[in-house]
Design goal:
The complex is a heterodimer. Chain A contains 13 helices and three strands. Chain A is mainly α. Chain A is globular and about 55 Å long. By secondary structure, chain B is an alpha+beta fold. Helices cover 36% and strands 19% of the residues of chain B. Chain B starts with 12 loop residues before the first helix and ends with a helix. The chains are: A mainly alpha, B alpha+beta.
Chain lengths: 368, 620
């Protein structure tokens, strides 16, 4: 029985590894295609940089696997505190790129602590729930500490400002809380509180962020101004048809009609070249990864492992849904990259570390 | 710490199930949306992406040149630099506006208006801000290209009016197409920012001059950068116009006028070709090329002498004594007078309780038709007018083309006014008085004509009654000299009068110039017999006290007419000169007419040096 189960999961793993690498390979190819025609800079082309990050990420996976995740539980708060310090550091000392302070310079590469916090916040939350595990739903008072664990990085990230990451933190946090269950009273209080803070949040948005929301609500209002990007994205995706225009033959991509086509809108560049068929397979790959992660969570031997795996699952899920939803015009434009696909070293590294954590939990599922 | 169960995940089975459902549902939504875009509307989106990719860029056709009768170039094209803006590449409109305000000839508010409109335009199209930037501006913008993103200098063509204001009122000028014109323009041949003939020949002959735009189909990237050429269609150049006008005559007329305001028109009475069409004061059409500046526009518009008014076709003046020609013909044809019959002029003519005065206080004494025309006796023509009656006067005036446009082919021509009892009843609700008939008989009162109508009228008198529509354009040629259209003037209904009548009147007109008593003797020239008639158009009604001309304020002085033709025995040229506030026609207008005639007959032996080196003429 036990043995049969093992073999079943081993085969599951191979398809998972295949899925991960397939996504990664397609990502690199799309990145390459997205950079055609752009002026050759003095620095390394993005797809090569991305490959280096892949290498770093794979090494990271190995290191993460070697450390038993139960030891990590021990240091979870310390790790969390360290990443908070990094967030404070960028706010104070960080390099400002187009008005946002997000980066720490590491020689030729730069790193965003706001990506790291996506996982370390999950670790801290996992540790909290691990020690407070109880049956039944939580009420708001019992959630004060996890709320603070979420709130501090949330505010720091908003200050950078990095709205996309803040939204991800918010979604992951609430997904975990809802997963554990909230009492009915708490849900009502939260709903009222959320609605009441909506106008407050609106007034705190930057003008360009407000514009994006308005554009999302009515892209046709200003097709050549603010709505332009989202319309070009739809054209790119739609014109791919079933088979796609072929690798390197996407006119929208090649002629640079797409905005941010190597980061936020990389899915549109992919969809144009690979068509519905490619998109279907890519989505299937992501769903596979998400269910694999979810499965690991459901089989974790303790609450810490379960919540860590859960957090990473939600991280994947929300990133994929929001990014692709945005490219398809279903959601407002917000800077949330596509995992393992978009250009951006920090995020790739963090997601690969997440994969490492999942494998860590997965390998040790029978040990107790 | 209390552990609830061995396997923590067992407590959350329902949550796992709910999440799984959410994951699948969310992916399903994405997939449906993808299928909708890529499968259902794939074709439509593919077309859109093609439209994105292919840019059609216009290649403007070189506009046709305008040449004078001797093929001397009057209007040419020259390369010019346009300052254009590509909305997508502009980073900061406020600072752009400030930078450009320092360079632009446009007033800041107009510039800002244009920039605001451009901001809303298609992101990757280039829009012309102003044409014909100065060399300094071009140098500045090119040198600071990187600091002023979105601004580009484009080399295009601009109109070059080589003879400045000399032909302003016949050739006109061009300007940026207005929204109204854009709406009227058919077949999508114009776009915002295109230039179009606004006035004069540039406007009327726009169709021929314009040529046909060519185009480039270019694969362009999102920035509008040209990646590769897909297709190219060459533009068809506009056709050249050869005018009947002669620069030499025009220039001589201009010199003869000096500082005076007025009109000089010369035409060939045999076919209606207009040889000279000068309006003064004039303006330089080149001022409009770069988009005229507010100051310049104001100085033209607010000029008390109205340089934009095309007096030759729009100026309405009483014809004065020139109208006596019509009256004489009418009276002879109607048989109400014989050439021999003499009427007495005592200097005044009494009708009812009112005295109608002759211009000569002392009176002319007893005189026949010939003398009455030569000396321009008012009292004689009061009596002729009284005998004819207003109905017959009106009828003859209309037969000679008065009260209707001549059809010279310029925009905005006015028809003038031939008064009649019916007109007066409608206009003022008052009956016609006989006294008014007398006033009209000497060409004053409500009777209003344009100078070009006088040209037509006099031509008809000399050519046996053919009323030509004067024409300015002789030929439409291609750039390589192939003739497309050779124009001939339209003819109106012929004016019927006997050759005996014609001879009597023509002999009298000849003596107006030739005789010592003639009012037009200052038009006399050597070698060629000139015939003509003076006229004085009253500006302010003069009552009994008529003071000498020089003491009257300029604005109230009468307009001076002189209409003549030569050679008197077989007329080749009709010249009409009107000098505004020039006083007596014989004194100010006749000498100008003479100079034009001298130039014409001097050049009857074609002057080789003149037509061979137009460039040097132009520079001078």
């Amino acid at each position: 029985m036990e043995k049969l189960k093992t073999s079943r999961f081993t085969s599951f793993d191979i398809s998972l590894v295949a899925a991960l690498f397939a996504i990664g390979l397609l990502g690199i190819l799309t990145l390459y295609s997205a950079m055609q025609g752009s002026a050759p800079g003095s620095s390394m082309p993005p797809h090569q940089k991305q490959l280096i990050w892949w290498g770093l990420g794979l090494m990271g996976i190995l290191i993460v696997i070697l450390i038993d995740y139960r030891h990590m539980e021990h240091y979870a708060y310390a790790i969390y505190a360290c990443s908070l310090l990094l967030l404070v550091y960028v706010l104070v000392m960080g390099r400002s790129i187009s008005g946002a302070k997000r980066w720490i310079e590491l020689g030729p590469l730069s790193f965003q602590p706001s990506e790291l916090i996506k996982i370390t916040m999950t670790l801290a939350l996992a540790k909290y729930f691990h020690h407070r595990a109880k049956q039944g739903r939580y009420n708001l008072f019992e959630l004060v500490v996890p709320f603070l664990i979420f709130l501090v990085p949330f505010v720091l990230v908003l200050l950078e400002p990095d709205l996309g990451t803040a939204i991800v933190l918010l979604l992951v946090f609430f997904s975990i809380v809802l997963f554990f269950g909230l009492s009915q009273g708490s849900i009502i209080v939260l709903a009222i509180g959320g609605l009441a803070s909506l106008p407050l949040g609106w007034f705190n948005l930057k003008d360009y962020q407000k514009e994006r929301v308005m554009t999302f609500l009515n892209p046709a209002e200003d097709p050549l101004g603010r709505g332009y990007h989202i319309i070009q994205s739809k054209i790119a995706i739609g014109s791919g048809g079933f088979w796609g225009k072929g690798f390197l033959h996407g006119t929208q991509t090649r002629l640079r009609f797409l905005p941010e086509q190597h980061t936020d809108f990389i899915f549109s560049a992919f969809a144009e070249q690979w068509g519905f068929l490619g998109c279907f397979l890519l989505l299937a790959g992501y769903l596979l990864v998400i269910f694999w992660a979810f499965n690991i969570s459901s089989r974790a031997k303790n609450t810490f492992g379960m919540v860590v795996a859960l957090g990473i699952t939600f991280l994947f899920f929300w990133h994929v849904i929001i990014n692709i939803g945005m490219c398809l015009g279903l959601l407002p434009v917000v800077g949330i990259p596509l995992p393992l696909f978009s250009y951006g070293g920090s995020f790739l590294l963090v997601m690969l570390l997440g994969v490492g954590l999942l494998l860590n939990i997965y390998i040790r599922r029978f040990i107790f | 710490m209390k552990r609830l169960s061995n396997n923590p995940t067992m407590d959350h089975r329902r949550s796992f199930l709910a999440c799984s459902f959410c994951f699948v549902a969310a992916f399903a939504i994405l997939l449906v949306r993808l299928a909708y875009f890529q499968l259902w509307s794939g074709e439509a989106f593919r077309n859109l992406s093609e439209n994105n990719r292919i840019r059609v860029t216009e290649i403007h056709a070189p506009r046709g040149r305008i040449l004078d009768a001797n093929h001397e170039i009057l209007v040419d094209n020259r390369p010019c630099f346009d300052v254009t803006v590509i909305p997508e590449e502009v980073q900061d409109y406020t600072s752009l506006g400030e930078t450009l305000a320092r360079l632009s000839p446009l007033p800041p508010e107009v510039l800002n208006e244009k920039l605001a409109a451009i901001r809303k335009g298609v992101p990757f199209r280039s829009y012309v801000l102003w044409k014909d930037a100065s060399w300094d501006t071009v140098a500045y913008l090119e040198a600071n290209r990187l600091r002023i993103p979105g601004v580009m200098i484009q080399v295009t063509q601009a109109r070059d009016y080589l003879v400045q204001g000399l032909f302003a009122h016949s050739i006109g000028y061009m300007g940026e197409i207005s929204p109204k014109e854009l709406k009227r323009a058919h077949r999508r041949e114009y776009r915002i920012g295109d230039w179009i003939g606004k006035v004069g020949i540039e406007k009327v002959w726009e169709e021929q001059l314009r040529g046909k735009k060519g185009g480039l189909q270019v694969e362009a990237d999102a920035r509008g950068r040209q990646i590769s050429l897909v297709k190219r269609k060459e533009p068809t150049p506009g056709k050249n116009l050869v005018l009947s006008l002669e620069r030499r005559l025009q220039q001589r007329a201009r010199q003869a006028f000096g500082d005076a305001t007025g009109v000089a028109i010369a035409a060939d009475p045999r076919d209606g070709r207009v040889l000279c069409y000068l309006n003064l004061p004039s303006y330089d059409p080149n001022s409009f090329v770069g988009g005229i500046s507010r100051d310049e526009w104001d100085s033209i518009r607010m000029n008390p002498l109205y340089p934009l008014t095309n007096r030759g076709i729009q100026g309405l003046y009483p014809p004065g004594s020139i109208f006596k020609i019509v009256l004489a013909i009418a009276a002879l044809e109607e048989g109400i007078i014989t050439p021999q019959e003499k009427l007495f002029c005592s200097g005044r003519y009494r009708l009812g309780t009112r005295d109608f005065r002759c211009w000569r206080k002392a009176g002319h004494g007893s005189m026949d038709l010939h003398q009455a025309i030569v000396q321009s006796c008012d009292v004689y023509f009061y009596q002729l007018g009284q005998r004819l009656g207003i109905e017959r006067i009106q009828s003859y005036a209309k037969r000679f083309g008065l009260g209707q446009i001549t059809g010279i082919g310029l925009d905005g021509e006015k028809s003038g006014l031939v008064p009649s009892p019916e007109w007066k009843r409608k206009r003022f609700g008052e009956p016609w008085y006989e006294g008014e008939t007398l006033i009209v008989s000497i060409g004053q009162g409500a009777l209003l004509v344009t100078p070009i109508q006088v040209v037509s009228l006099l031509s008809a008198v000399t050519n046996g009654g053919t009323l030509f529509a004067p024409r300015l354009v002789e030929k439409v040629e291609s750039t390589d000299g192939k003739v497309f259209v050779e124009s001939s003037s339209a003819r109106g209904a012929p004016v019927n009068f006997s050759s005996r009548t014609a001879t009597i009147v023509q002999e009298a007109l000849r003596d107006v110039v030739a005789s010592e008593k003639g009012t037009g003797k200052r038009a006399r020239m050597e070698g060629v017999a000139v015939a003509g008639k003076t006229g004085t158009a009253q500006v302010v009604r003069m009552d009994d006290q008529r003071t000498p001309g020089d003491e009257i304020p300029l604005k109230e002085r009468d307009h001076a007419w002189f209409a003549c033709y030569a050679p008197a025995e077989s007329p080749e040229i009709v010249v009409v000169v009107l000098v505004e506030h020039g006083g007596h026609g014989g004194e100010t207008a006749a000498p100008i007419a003479r100079e034009i005639l001298e130039e014409y007959f001097r050049s009857d032996q074609p002057d080789e040096t003149l037509s061979a080196s137009p460039a040097s003429e132009v520079d001078g």
